[in-house]
Amino acid sequence: MLDVRRVYAELLSEGHSKESASIVVFLEGVNQIILQLEEIRKNSRQHVSDRRQQMTSEPKQAQQTAGDFGWALNRLWDGAHMQRRGWNGKGMWIALQRPGVATKMTLPYMYMSTVEGDLVPWVASQTDQLAMDWQEAEWPPADTAA
Q1: 80 lies in the same domain as 128
Q2: Which neighbouring-strand residues pair with 84?
Q3: Closest Cα partner for 125 from 74, 91, 98, 86?
Q4: Are residues 95 and 51 in the same domain?
Q5: Residue 126 binned pLDDT confidence (cut-offs 50, 70, 90)
Q6: Are 53 and 11 contained in the same domain?
Q7: Which parts of 1-146 fold into alpha helices (H)?
Q8: In the 8-state DSSP scheme, what is residue 109?
Q9: pLDDT for the residue numbered 82
Q10: Which is the most buried residue in 20, 56, 69, 105, by most CB within 10 A?
């Protein structure tokens, strides 16, 4: 940790003006803050990396039949189609689309199958994000299964 008074006194004793000593102390403080922020960022990246590794190495909860949005999102990444019990439309579900050679998209996105069977981009509402009634959708849907 930077001892501001000591550094300032040393600079004055070396013949620096009060103004230049103040600037040097200020810049040293800024440098210390930058170093601390870099350490925080490094630790944060490591935490995210550790959590991602933990999530991918934990056994999947195949027996779970309903859950929160976080659970549903993880199941989407696993390739599942998800729906809410609270949705009124029969046969509605969401899925995750990953970019591929046949698409112009460059990032994954979620889409929904509407009651009519149309596929449209989908963004979760707050209600959807806070709901605890997420479940896997029957796939393929019973009315389209051959």
Answers
A1: yes
A2: 134
A3: 86
A4: no
A5: very high
A6: yes
A7: 4-13, 18-57, 69-77, 126-130
A8: E
A9: 96
A10: 69
pLDDT in tens, 30-48: 888 888 888 888 777 777 6
Chain position carrying tokens 């190495």 = 57
Same domain, 44 and 95: no
Classify residue 81: in a domain, yes or no: yes
Structural domain boundaries, residue 101: 69-136
For residues 54-76, average pLDDT: 75
Does residue 56 have a pLDDT over 90?
A: no
Residues 6+ apart with CB under 8 A from 106: 99
Verdict on whether the full-model pTM lies above 0.85 = no
Please give the tally of structural domains in the chain: 2
In a domain, 88, yes or no: yes
Do the bridges between strand 134-136 and strand 82-84 make them parallel or antiparallel, or are there none, so unpaired? antiparallel
Helix axes 18-57, 4-13, angle to 10 degrees: 150
Instruction: Indicate the pLDDT class of residue 113, thresholds 50, 70 and 90.
Output: very high
Enter the tokens of residue 61: 């909860």
119 has which bridge partners?
A: 113
Does residue 95 lie in a domain region?
yes
Amino acid identity for residue 9 in this structure: A
Say if 62 falls within a structural domain: no
